[in-house]
Amino acid sequence: MKLKILGSSSSGNCYLFQTIDGEILIIECGIDVRELKKTLNFDFSDIAGCLVSHEHGDHSKSLQKMLDSGIDCYMSEGTKTVLSIEHHRVHVMPKLERIRIGSFTVMAFKAQHDCADPVGFLVYHLEMGLTLFATDTYYVEYSFENLNNILVECNYAKDILDKNALNSIITKVLRDRTLKSHFELENVKNFLKANNLSGVRNICLLHLSDRNSDADRFKKEIEELTGINTTIADKGVEIDLSLYPF
Asked: pTM of the prediction?
């Protein structure tokens, strides 16, 4: 199982889980669909589906083109309503209920963000075990057992954010909005400490802010805390999520 990252920022988000047989589950469609087509050699036949966490454009802007390309897309009821999208390939995901998408098993859970009905996902596949995906959330109310991989937003550090606001690099309005909509470094640490990490092989930090983060620092501090290999998500990054060697 490979994770391919096509975008992980406010410019656009898209993550591909690809099995050894080539089946693909996509999370987020916030990039130009032409980039996705190029990555997949213009062949969408192996895509099992696409999960959309919420309605913001950097996560959903290519939704209509995905649907028109024959891809089943899954989201919460609130996200579907806000996007005003009606299509036979749109599927509403009830929270905390397992659904089958190809050979993947997926469950949505409530996230906390400044939008209608955001969700995170638990994704299970025999090749990678259980993977947590949580982005664009300032808090995760759940703890999880039996995780093998964690993909979690680590958008900013409060000291960097405050310094940027003090120096007028960002506005106070943006500072306050960030505090109420994104996951901060120390909060990510507390979240990780609240979970059983004994089976976790990979941590991937998602959606780092261009101005309010420090990738090297974040990686170092999370690895020091957990002892687990930590990767910073960026366009073009690939991670081997295989639970067992093939």
From this structure: 0.95
